[in-house]
Design a protein that fits this description.
This protein is of the alpha/beta class. The chain folds into 3 domains: about 15-95, no CATH class; about 100-180, Winged helix-like DNA-binding domain superfamily/Winged helix DNA-binding domain (Arc Repressor Mutant, subunit A, Orthogonal Bundle), CATH 1.10.10; about 190-310, Rossmann fold. The chain has helices at about 40-45, 50-65, 90-95, 100-115, 140-150, 170-180, 200-215, 235-240, 255-265, 300-310; strands at about 15, 25-30, 30-35, 70-75, 85-90, 120-125, 155-160, 165-170, 190-195, 220, 245-250, 270-275, 295. The strands form 3 sheets. Strands 1-2-3-4-5 form a 5-stranded mixed β-sheet. Strands 10-9-11-12-13 form a 5-stranded parallel β-sheet, sandwiched between helices. Helix 4 packs across helix 6 (about 170-180) and helix 7 (about 200-215) runs parallel beside helix 10 (about 300-310). The longest helix has 16 residues, at about 50-65. It starts with 12 loop residues before the first strand and ends in an 11-residue tail after the last helix.
Length: about 325
């Protein structure tokens, strides 16, 4: 593929060699910013690679970029233990929304991120914005927009023209976004994403304790509670879906933690980011726009996280917060 083309969609893109591990930084109008290894680029541009899967990858890189994250796509042969950076193509595809209603919900959230204020018109370009809607092409984009308009989630701000149109979130659409921020208030589970390492054992105990102390019957779940193979598998996806919120500790900066957090954010789940103080400057992803809990000791982590959960998730009255 020519150097000026995006490996995922074929559109004109800026490509820059990262100078390490044969990784290329891609800036595409359609897929936005992402990184891809040479092996992964060869894989996705191979004639046998399904076009629908390339469209799915475009949607996922676009969503991540809109969230302020940059995905590093690795080949299907990539093994997580080889390094802390990157995600295999199959694991990334597992994060794609599985149903039409979930696609609509995530598209609605993507539109909100592009809206400067309530009622602001949002320009949608038929040629480059279909990944925002998890659509496969411009035709699917127009069908999805029509469905969202008819459902009352968005409205036409200005009549569509040949290249696209401008739309605004409706009150119903904003209400749906607010619902997604409280996806499962009845769930008693908090999903914890973190590195599994002996030097994090005390931190895990602090996280687990903080969740239990925040509200009666809340419990923490992390993926090594079941057989785990360092892949973002169906069990992990299912547990994130059934959780009330996520705690993502980015100490050691494991890529899987960032990907799981991004998936949870796409579902509308609240995500609380935490990081050990001496590791904060090594963040490999742009998550600094999120309010991290920066902790110095496990006890510090326990107290800060408990208070954050009570203040933002379970809404414990001030009279009980000292308990």
């Amino acid at each position: 593929m020519p150097d000026e083309q995006c490996p995922l969609c074929g559109k004109h893109a800026q490509r820059r060699d990262q100078g390490r591990n044969q990784v290329t930084q891609v800036a595409c109008e359609r897929c936005r910013d992402y990184r891809i290894t040479e092996e992964a680029a060869d894989e996705v541009t191979h004639p046998d690679f399904e076009e629908s899967k390339r469209a799915m990858l475009s949607a996922l890189t676009r969503e991540a970029s809109e969230q302020g994250r940059i995905i590093t796509i690795c080949s299907s042969e990539y093994k997580a233990e080889e390094g802390k950076e990157g995600i295999a193509i199959a694991d990334l595809l597992a994060l794609f929304p599985r149903s039409i209603p979930e696609r609509i919900d995530r598209a609605l959230q993507n539109l909100e991120r592009k809206s400067s204020h309530f009622g602001a018109p949002i320009r949608v370009d038929d040629s480059k914005d279909w990944p925002l809607f998890f659509a496969e092409n411009g035709d699917a984009l127009r069908f999805t927009i029509e469905h969202m308009v008819q459902s009352g989630l968005i409205q036409e701000a200005f009549p569509p023209d040949q290249g696209g149109g401008e739309y605004a979130l409706t009150v119903k659409g904003c209400d749906r976004i607010e619902e997604l921020r409280h996806v499962r208030p009845e769930s008693r589970q908090a999903f914890v994403a973190m590195r599994f390492h002996p030097d994090m054992d005390e931190a895990w105990h602090a996280l687990d304790t903080a969740v239990k102390e925040a509200e009666l019957n809340l419990h923490a779940w992390r993926s090594d509670m079941v057989q785990f193979n360092e892949k973002i598998d169906d069990r992990i996806i299912a547990e994130i879906r059934r959780s009330r919120f996520m705690v993502a500790d980015v100490t050691h900066h494991r890529q899987a933690v960032y990907f799981e957090a991004g998936f949870a954010m796409g579902l509308g789940l609240p995500v609380i980011f935490t990081c050990r103080e001496d590791d904060l400057n090594d963040c490999s992803f742009d998550t600094r726009q999120y309010n991290h809990i920066v902790w110095k000791s496990p006890e510090d982590l326990r107290e800060q996280l408990r208070d954050r959960i009570r203040a933002t998730i379970v809404d414990i009255p001030p009279s009980r917060r000292g308990a």
